[in-house]
Design brief:
This protein has 13 helices and 16 strands. By secondary structure, it is of the alpha/beta class. It has 2 domains: about 260 residues, Type I PLP-dependent aspartate aminotransferase-like (Major domain) (Aspartate Aminotransferase, domain 2), CATH 3.40.640.10; about 100 residues, Aspartate Aminotransferase, domain 1, CATH 3.90.1150. It binds pyridoxal-5'-phosphate (PLP). Pyridoxal-5'-phosphate binds next to α4. The site of pyridoxal-5'-phosphate has 14 residues, from α4.
């Protein structure tokens, strides 16, 4: 087996069980084309990043134009037009009260930045706080800080000794919402630095959805206690929940917000962490020791920023949000028959995302059915990557009804697979 091992080590891939990777040559709209000519429907937006479709012409053009002018510049002490355009467009679109934009390059780094901003604030105002409150079943990324604020389990068991301690409030399952709010209220009495939460849907934790009233209440509790709320919209942002950002629906203005994935329409890696003026101001000083000490070499890469600017321009067009609303309605219609199908549990939808759990007894990320489902969908030329026994559909917004028909026909057939 050793000699057959791939020289490339792929993410979240068990090479012993999956020796062959699917070689993709082209992406167009909702489709991927493999080297062998197969057309694959991308039903999960290539890990939730592609919003308007693969190789969207507006975004591709912006990348090409920028690549001919400036591809990289150190962002400490320097700036450039694409970054400035992205920052000003974002501040207009983001919830009120967010006044500053810090660039990084992935969802995980945007979360690390958010945590450092919160702790930096408390440190710099002379009232050091370090505890972070989190929600059970959350996922915030795979760097050490992001793992620390995420659920503990198989994803990070090996690194446990490196992870810092947090206070977790229970997930607000139906009819258990009050327990979440009570736990948050109690946690806030211990003066934590911040509460970090995925608004409305916990993605990698199993596409768990909760009502907007809970999000609203959680923000009210934190605000009353003077605890910063970090909204991790890395997955929920860019229309996924039916509005540009999930927080909008609950009329919640977070104190710190993380956006990535669809920020460039899914074309290039880029992330931002937005924060309130008070947080920036706590670092603003003639004393250099109060600087926000965070950077990565490619911070605000000009080409990635040009892609983000093109994406933000697309979001200025009313047709973009109307399309999101249409996709949400198409998803609801496609999902409806599964609501009375006894082979599935927890059939649910939030905006353009649907999820349903195969009722096979075994659940969780390592459920035995997981690899079988993956293989089954691959044979149907569908890119679907269930989370254990949870199948979800998160398509790019250019998906058609006939694509969805194909996807849901395969899901119905998959229910006949046995563990
Ligand atoms: N936060 C959330 C809510 C996510 O869903 C993810 C990735 O799926 C991340 C953070 C990490 O993003 P990235 O994989 O770009 O580091």
């Amino acid at each position: 087996m050793r000699t057959m091992a791939s020289p490339i080590w792929h993410p979240f891939t068990q090479h012993a069980l999956q020796p062959e990777m699917v070689r993709i040559a082209l992406g167009e709209g909702a489709y991927l084309y493999a080297d062998d000519g197969r057309r694959i429907i991308d039903a999960i937006s290539s890990w939730w990043v592609v919003t308007h479709g693969h190789c969207h012409p507006t975004i591709v053009r912006a990348i090409k134009d920028q690549a001919e002018r400036l591809t990289q510049i150190i962002f400490a002490g320097h700036t450039h037009e694409p970054a400035e355009q992205v920052a000003s467009a974002l501040l207009k679109l983001a919830p009120a009260g967010l006044d500053h934009v810090f660039f990084s390059d992935s969802g995980s780094t945007s979360v690390e930045v958010a945590l450092k901003m919160a702790l930096g604030y408390w440190h710099n105002i002379g009232e050091p706080r370090s505890r972070i409150v989190v929600m059970q079943h959350s996922y915030h990324g795979d760097t050490i800080g992001a793992m620390s604020v995420g659920a503990r389990g198989v994803f990070n068991a090996a690194y446990g000794p490196l992870l810092f301690d947090v206070t977790a409030v229970p997930f607000p399952f139906e009819e258990k919402e009050q327990a979440t709010l009570d736990a948050l209220e109690a946690a806030c009495r211990d003066k934590p630095a911040a509460f970090i939460v995925e608004p409305l849907i916990l993605g990698a934790g199993g596409m768990l959805m909760y009502p907007l009233q809970v999000l609203k209440e959680m923000k009210r509790i934190c605000e009353a206690a003077g605890v910063w709320v970090i909204a991790d919209e890395v997955m929920t942002g860019w229309g996924r929940t039916g509005t540009l950002f999930a927080c909008e629906q609950a009329d919640v203005a977070p104190d710190i917000a993380c956006y990535s994935k669809g920020l460039t329409g899914g074309a290039l890696p880029l992330a931002v962490t937005l924060c309130r003026a008070e947080i920036f101001d706590a670092h603003f000083s003639h004393d250099r020791s109060r600087t926000f000490f965070h950077s990565s070499s490619y911070t605000a890469n000009p080409v990635a920023c040009a892609a983000a600017k093109a994406n933000l321009d697309l979001w200025q067009e009313p047709a973009t949000l109307s399309r999101v609303v249409e996709v949400a309605a198409m998803q609801e219609r496609a999902l409806a028959p599964f609501r009375d199908d006894g082979r599935f549990k927890n059939v649910r939808r939030a905006g353009t995302i649907t999820a349903l759990d195969l009722d096979v007894g075994d659940s969780g990320y390592l459920a035995g059915i997981g690899p079988k489902l993956l293989e089954f969908f691959a044979r149907r030329n569908l890119l679907l990557r269930p989370l254990g026994n949870t199948i979800y559909v998160m398509p790019p917004y250019c998906v058609t009804k006939s694509d969805l028909d194909e996807i849901y026909a395969a899901i119905a057939d998959a229910a006949n697979l046995r563990q």
